[in-house]
Amino acid sequence: MSRAGDYSVAKPSRIKLKPTPDEIATTLYRAEQARQARFAERISSANSAGPSSSPPQPPHSTSGRRPGIPEPNLGRRWKTDSSSAHFDALADDVRIPARFYDSAKHRGRYTTAYTTAIDSAEDFLFGPSSVPERARTQRAEDVVQLYGGPVPAMGNRTVNEYLGWIRHGMDQLRKREEDRVRQDRARQKEWEEQEAERMREKQRAKDEKAQRAHESKERKRRAAEAEEYERASKRRREEPGVNVKVEGGDNKGERERYLSRWKAFNGAGEGGADIVEVELAFADIPWPVYGSRRVGSAESLSEERIEAFLLDLATESCPTAESMRSAKRKVQMEAIRQLHPDRFHGRVLPRVKESDKAKVKEGVEHCIRIVNGLLTGR
């Protein structure tokens, strides 16, 4: 015979145990850490958005009433609420369940004279709090952490006292962190300014060095041009010249004949029509050297002879040593223009004797290479 019916299984109890002080402290502490994290995130977003970002706007009314029409009994309800309620700024954004107050010797949402009297009576009857004095006076910023970490004990503090205590500590930690970041940024900015100033000084020194080198180079160039101008002037004064002396010749006359012959070749001077009718020989070409009528081949057109001839041409048209450089360049460019193959082969080469055309082409190319080298400084 079964006796299973004599036993009944007990149903699970619905009794809710009151939270312990440690559970209350954990809930409040983690909630405050979350609030601090949200606050830091808002500050970071505002800083990254810049000054152009608009501040958060208050939420719109959800009462459904048109603006400007007050709700019924609004003044009476406001007066009643303001006289009976006590606003606690420290509890903002952190909701404290009502059961926490019962476990922490609170009889309501806020501390009143009645609950304070009960707390004092309990202290009188049962002695002071078992929490050491060191724990009562311990600074919250030395115990709390902004992220994670152990939960500080609630001790004999009320819910509002504990919440205010940990919030004050976290605010102090956040201010310390902000001060540290501000100091780091100031130091970084100071270092960047010093580095920028150092780079400017370095660049200034580099520019000054380059300027001095340029000035030294210019002085040497002007001195060389003055010396060259003096040599050319002396050579002109001692016509027919030194090192380029032509037996029975006149250097000045040679230069004048060179210029007039090229004008005739280009059809701008006297005798241009006669040149068209006459077949030209190698010696008839106005080469940029002294004694060009005695030149028989390209080998006779040496760089020294061409350079001396063009230098005398430039000196003759140059009143001062300062303008010597531009005068030399102008004379060299004109010689290149006259002897350029495209121009020379089209205007002058067809008039040359068939037997001398190869030598003339070789002489023109030889002169062009030398004058180009003089122009580029090679």
TrEMBL record:
<feature type="region of interest" description="Disordered">
    <location>
        <begin position="173"/>
        <end position="250"/>
    </location>
</feature>
<keyword id="KW-0539">Nucleus</keyword>
<protein>
    <submittedName>
        <fullName>Uncharacterized protein</fullName>
    </submittedName>
</protein>
<feature type="region of interest" description="Disordered">
    <location>
        <begin position="36"/>
        <end position="80"/>
    </location>
</feature>
<keyword id="KW-0597">Phosphoprotein</keyword>
<dbReference type="GO" id="GO:0005634">
    <property type="term" value="C:nucleus"/>
</dbReference>
<feature type="compositionally biased region" description="Basic and acidic residues">
    <location>
        <begin position="173"/>
        <end position="240"/>
    </location>
</feature>
<dbReference type="InterPro" id="IPR038753">
    <property type="entry name" value="NFKBIL1"/>
</dbReference>
<keyword id="KW-0040">ANK repeat</keyword>
<keyword id="KW-0677">Repeat</keyword>
<feature type="compositionally biased region" description="Low complexity">
    <location>
        <begin position="42"/>
        <end position="52"/>
    </location>
</feature>
<feature type="region of interest" description="Disordered">
    <location>
        <begin position="1"/>
        <end position="22"/>
    </location>
</feature>
<dbReference type="GO" id="GO:0043124">
    <property type="term" value="P:negative regulation of canonical NF-kappaB signal transduction"/>
</dbReference>
